[in-house]
Design a protein that fits this description.
By secondary structure, this protein is an all-alpha fold. It is built from nine helices and no strands.
Length: 232
């Protein structure tokens, strides 16, 4: 029994070092994911079937107007492009290559998984909630662009936190800070360009916070099983 413990301890440390969801952050991000999912559900329920801005939206900005003007219109359009199919493929591809160059294959898998999970969940929720902007054919809640940008930021921040061996406090600050910056930037662009209501951006941000930690955990579990099979 003692020999088995000695042999498995290095393997456990190696798995922890390779994890895209570092052990110090599992409980923290798991705790964050629960209220984020509740926010998505509550806000979605409030605006289900609506086709106009709510009170909170009106307090922040006139969401039906294309309110951003040069020079701020240019960065808004660049951010918007990064969330479109062509831009998102380029961005995800660049991040995957970067992860592989850094010898973080799990990070590369997480980038793709997180992006797909966030966008897929946002798309499903749009059809379930049925909120629209600028006409009945434009489903708006939650913002897929914001969910995508936030999920990528979370994935990249998790890879960086793991590589730096960041502790709970530093890792949490890094991951949540990156998600806030990315979500706020893309959410601003979407609202400024008149593509979404502010509460759509909030829903997109929370969608990514809800789905990315579980996606990272799934990547780790499957990678650990695959590694274990190869060694056996």
């Amino acid at each position: 029994m003692g020999g088995a413990t000695t042999r498995t301890a290095p393997q456990a440390r190696e798995r922890a070092a390779d994890a895209v969801l570092p052990p110090p952050l599992r409980r923290v991000l798991g705790t964050v994911a629960v209220p984020a999912a509740l926010v998505v559900a509550v806000v979605g329920g409030m605006y289900a079937g609506h086709g106009a801005p709510g009170r909170v939206d009106r307090m922040l900005v006139d969401p039906t107007a294309d309110s951003v003007r040069p020079p701020w219109r240019y960065p808004a359009r660049v951010l918007d492009f990064l969330g479109e199919p062509a831009g998102s493929v380029l961005l995800v591809g660049a991040l995957v290559v970067a992860c592989l160059l850094l010898r973080r294959p799990r990070g590369a898998v997480l980038v793709v998984t997180a992006a797909c999970a966030a966008v897929g969940t946002a798309t499903l929720l749009k059809h379930l909630v049925g909120r629209t902007i600028h006409g009945p054919g434009n489903l708006s809640y939650p913002s897929g662009h914001t969910a995508f940008a936030t999920a990528l930021a979370l994935a990249v921040a998790l890879v960086v936190a793991g590589r730096l061996r960041a502790g709970r406090a530093a890792g949490t600050a890094l991951v949540l800070g990156a998600s806030l910056v990315a979500g706020a930037a893309m959410g601003w662009a979407q609202v400024a360009l008149g593509a979404h209501y502010p509460t759509d951006a909030l829903g997109g941000w929370c969608t990514a916070l809800a789905v990315t930690p579980p996606a990272a955990r799934v990547v780790d579990v499957l990678a650990d099983r695959l590694t274990g099979r190869r060694r056996s």
